[in-house]
Amino acid sequence: MALLSLHDVRIHDGVGDRDVVKGVSFALEAGQAVGIVGESGSGKTLTCRAVLGILPPHFTVSGGAISVDGRDVAGLTGRQWTALRGATVSAVFQDPASYLNPSLKVGGQIAEVVRVKKGLSRRDARRRAVELLDALRLRDPAQVYQQYPHELSGGMLQRVLIATAIAADPQVLIADEATTALDVTVQAEILDLLAELRESTGLALVVVSHDLAVVAQLCDEVLVLRDGETVEQGPVERILYEPRHAYTRLLIAEHEQYGLDRVRELAHVA
Ligand SMILES: Nc1ncnc2c1ncn2[C@@H]1O[C@H](COP(=O)(O)OP(=O)(O)OP(=O)(O)O)[C@@H](O)[C@H]1O
Question: ipTM of this predicted complex?
């Protein structure tokens, strides 16, 4: 059974009175990774937010179905959503600093998630938080635990955020432009880390990026969105080598300046 499945999902903007996502479908099993690419405004983030039950006001899922771990999410209560988020499906977005409380030490923020979601004692939650920081290859995790967000670099903060996102052992992690703000080397390190987590824990990934190279590196399947429509969908290698839609060819062409072979090489490794 799929851990996460979307079937022809449509999202309606009640203020603009228009559909902003017009039919997105995919299914994810343990250890699989699906990528969503497309330019700004194509509906990538709203699709993720629908999966997490956090659509902005006036936006609704107006068609299709989303199920998490075999359960249709339509009609979940607020309390049921809270139980699902973090523990089954979790997410990391761009701009980690805005998701952390600047006045609290980062370790305490991870420990709090573990305590609330996993019911661990304060002491065990603390130990688990240090373990998570270590697993995300932050050097001297006990010291990082004691630091405030402003004391950490962007790459470190993103690792802290990933640690927070996986603290409750979710089955699916959504990474929405999670490496976009980072420089290329740090971005590559974080992508490696996600690939490793997927390998070692069977974490399923939804990777959202405007950058086809990021998605190619991590994913088995890619969805190409434009204006809320899925213009093309298929195995990453097929999309890279035999794009069928002109828009996909355009996205690939944007990479020619960096060397498309490199993108294809990365896809091959994934
Ligand atoms: N909170 C909001 N209020 C009003 N309109 C919104 C809101 N969030 C998204 N939209 C609109 O819905 C459409 C889809 O947005 P979405 O954020 O899903 O796109 P995206 O592909 O993730 O783009 P980006 O890469 O810029 O985040 C866009 O037209 C956007 O302007």
Answer: 0.92
